[in-house]
Design a protein that fits this description.
This protein is mainly beta. It folds into 3 domains: 2-64, Roll (SH3 type barrels); 68-127, Nucleic acid-binding proteins (OB fold (Dihydrolipoamide Acetyltransferase, E2P)), CATH 2.40.50; 131-187, OB fold (Dihydrolipoamide Acetyltransferase, E2P), CATH 2.40.50.140. The protein contains no helices and 16 strands.
Length: 190
C-alpha cells in the first residue's frame, strides 16, 4: 500500500482492478484551518490508455502494483507499432502508438536506457530516459557575440522536433533535450 502524499510520477497503482500509472500530480493546500491537503492525480490506464482524474487526501491509501522493470532499447517502428528489444535476454516487445502517448517523438532507432514495465510477462508501458542527445540539423546562423545574450532561436533536431536553443548553437552540434518537457538542457561536448 502507498499513501497518496507519497505518490510520484510513474508509480503504478490498482484502481478498480486495472493498472493505472501516475502521469501528473497537483497539490492543493486549502487556506482554511483544519482542511486537508488534496492531491489531484491524473492517471492513465496502462492497458487501455484511458485517462482518469482523481482527488485524494494525504492519508488515503492505494494498492501499488509490483511491475517487473526490464532494460530495453528501441529498435524500429512499423506504421503505428513500436518494437523494443530486451537488453538482457533479447526478447522483443511491441507497443502501439496509443500506449506511447507523448513519447514517440523521442524514440530514435538504437535509443537505449529505456525501461519496459511488465505485468505478468506482458509489457504495459515504457519509461524513457530523462534526457537524450540529438543533433541540430537546421537552425539560423550563429550570431557573433550571441553567447553574451540570453535569447533563443528555434532549431530542428535529427528526430524532426523543433526546440528553442541558445543563439550561439549551429547545425551539426549535439544537444541534450529533456524528454519530459521537450526543452533544451545543454550542449553535448564531443
Amino acid at each position: 500500500m502507498i499513501k497518496a502524499n507519497t505518490l510520484k510520477k510513474g508509480n503504478i497503482v490498482d484502481i478498480g482492478g486495472q493498472p493505472h500509472q501516475v502521469k501528473d500530480m497537483e497539490v492543493q493546500t486549502p487556506s482554511a484551518r483544519g482542511s486537508n491537503t488534496l492531491y489531484k492525480v491524473r492517471f492513465t490506464n496502462v492497458v487501455t490508455g484511458q485517462k482518469l482524474d482523481q482527488t485524494f487526501k494525504g492519508n488515503d491509501t492505494l494498492e501499488e502494483l509490483e511491475m517487473e522493470r526490464r532494460p530495453v532499447s528501441f529498435i524500429f517502428r512499423n506504421q503505428d507499432m513500436y518494437t523494443f528489444m530486451d537488453s538482457e535476454n533479447f526478447e522483443q516487445y511491441t507497443l502501439g502508438e496509443a500506449s506511447l502517448e507523448g513519447k514517440t517523438e523521442w524514440l530514435v532507432e538504437g535509443l537505449e536506457e529505456i525501461t519496459a514495465l511488465l505485468l505478468n510477462g506482458r509489457v504495459m508501458a515504457v519509461e524513457l530516459p530523462a534526457s537524450i542527445d540529438l543533433e541540430i540539423v537546421d537552425t539560423a546562423p550563429a550570431l557573433k557575440g550571441a553567447s553574451a545574450t540570453n535569447r533563443n532561436k528555434p532549431a530542428t533536431l535529427s528526430n524532426g522536433m523543433t526546440v528553442l536553443v541558445p543563439e550561439y548553437l549551429t547545425p551539426g552540434e549535439m544537444i541534450r533535450v529533456n524528454t519530459e518537457t521537450g526543452k533544451f538542457m545543454s550542449r553535448v561536448k564531443s
